Amino acid sequence: MHFDDRLDTVLSQPPSGKAMVRIQYRQLLDLLGTTVPQAGGEALDAAFLRLAELEDGIPAVERAAMIQEPGLRLRSPVLVAHLARDEPAVAVAVIGKASLTEDQWLDLIPALPAHARGLLRHRRDLDASAEALLDRLGATYRPLPYAKADVGAKPAPPAEEPIAEIGAIVRRIEAFRRTRAQNEASGTHGDTPRLPLDDESYCPPLRPVETFDFTTDVEGRIDWAEPSVAPMVIGFNLPTLGGPGTSVIGQVATGFRYRQPLRGVSLTLAGAPSISGNWLIDAVPCFDQLGGGFTGYCGRMRRLVAIEPASAMPAPAIGEADRMRQMLHELRTPVNAIQGFAEVLLYQLYGPTPQEYRALAATIASDAARILAGFDELDRLVRLDSGALRLDPGKADLGSLLDVLLVRLMPVLEPRQSAFAPTLDEDLNVAMGRDDTERLLWRLLATLASATAPGEILRLRGRKRDGTVRLTMRLPASLATRDDEALLRGSVPATGQTLSAGMFGIGFALRLAAAEARAAGGTLERRGERLRLSLPALTDSADSNSHLGNGAKGAGIA
């Protein structure tokens, strides 16, 4: 038997500071919104008293925004009745957000204030009995949305609501006109909203949207989005949208059918100029906390920026590379300091440290080391692309290195029953230093291994052709379905993985591997569902001159 003491836990914390006031208000909304209607007791009464106290410290606009958040569920008629008596902005939000049954609406409507009954007329999911009850109560007026400038005002009596709304609109029009006159006098427009009155030729600048969050209903239709894009995207049915050159309709429809997460799926939006174009979607299914039923998807869309393949990316100017390296140097300094202080606590250099703090210090030191490793990768890519770093020639047996690295990967892959299946020819010597070759191979193998599914076998084929050593690697199924743009986009991997593609994800790791291959005189290309690494084979002349050491420049690498 479980005892729910979440309300007591929240109420035991004093709301000190503005941040804590907002956090506690949001927590109480979440807990009271899913409280069983018959529930009662001292904790519930105290929770509503605390909620009323917190309301005085949060502006109405912010309270309304919290209520409209996609994760909040309002299934408590008591909480809906309480919030509906709040200021107009809050009442609009709660009436639109509430999710009550037919009987609950019938019991609640007579207790609602007049302006809240009018707001109910905007809902399209009320049944005939609720509509009839509203008619009997005389709730026939459909109010306009409240202006932000008037959200702090108390709602007017029902008979005066139309006059108050007209007055608010007149005041807003006058404010728009004054702002327009000031902008025209100064010669600037800015982002101030304008009304199309006598200035029909003026069109405010539209900024393209780069990313936005959204939720869908059970059919995949967007029913909520961030306020800045909501009018442009609400109503889009995701399972019917296609993407550039991919069978996205099948991917999204299959994901919705089986309630699977959507990761890096590309699709195309057609509509307003600021949202039109190609997008990447990441979304997860959401389920009801009480009954466990599927309620839709919650996710984020990111604009798909067309980027060229790594082999065709132009090298940045030396000045840009120097600025990037300077920025990395400035970032390393505080991270090194954080890591040093964490290690002081971890190793108890200045005296005993409680075990709890040592555990936290170990986590901080590990995170700092991971960040510094990411900085090193960024610095290496910048120097390779700008030509500031050149890989020294040498000799390496690609076949023997692959054998060693595949054995190193076995403890990670075997528990998942996945593996690499190599088929390697003899004499796979390459004209590249052993350390650089090992680093390049490990980067590629670890990247592919991190994306393999349980039971997936990836084939490797190594052979020598026309003076080059070619290593062909099959892409995991999770990567093979992505197009070139989606594959090369850097996505941060989930934390806690035993093996990862690096701090900046799969796309960045592949671009860095391509830069290393180019610096050695080779290439890294995608061929359908495979990656092909081509490195210059070690010729007889290069082998005879290998005694010059790794520092010898110009050893005939093409």
State the gist of this model.
With 558 residues, this protein is an alpha+beta fold. The protein has helices at 6-11, 18-33, 42-55, 60-67, 77-84, 88-97, 102-108, 114-120, 128-136, 161-186, 230-233, 248-258, 318-346, 355-386, 398-413, 434-450, 477-480, 484-488, 505-519, 540-544; strands at 211-216, 222-225, 262-269, 277-287, 294-303, 396-397, 419-424, 429-430, 457-465, 468-474, 523-527, 530-536. The chain is elongated and about 95 Å long.
Describe this structure as you would to a colleague:
The structure is a single chain. This protein is an alpha+beta fold and about 550 residues long. About 45% of the residues lie in helices and about 15% in strands. The protein contains 20 helices and 12 strands. The strands form 3 sheets. Strands 2-1-5-4-3 form a 5-stranded antiparallel β-sheet. Strands 7-9-10-12-11 form a 5-stranded mixed β-sheet. Helix 14 packs across helix 19 and helix 15 (about 400-415) packs parallel to helix 16. The N and C termini lie far apart (about 75 Å). Mean pLDDT is about 75; it is low at about 140-160, about 190-205, about 245-250, about 305-320, about 490-495 and about 540-558.
Q: Over all CA atoms, what is the radius of gyration?
A: 31 Å
Helix content: 40-55%
Q: Count of helices? A: 20
Q: Return the average pLDDT rounded to an integer.
A: 77
Number of strands: 12
Shape: elongated
Q: Report the major sheet.
A: 5 strands, antiparallel
Distance between the termini: 73 Å
Strand order of the largest sheet: 2-1-5-4-3
The proportion of residues in beta strands is 5-15%
Q: Tell me the structural class.
A: alpha+beta
pLDDT below 50 for ≥5 consecutive residues: which ranges? 141-158, 189-204, 243-248, 307-318, 492-496, 542-558
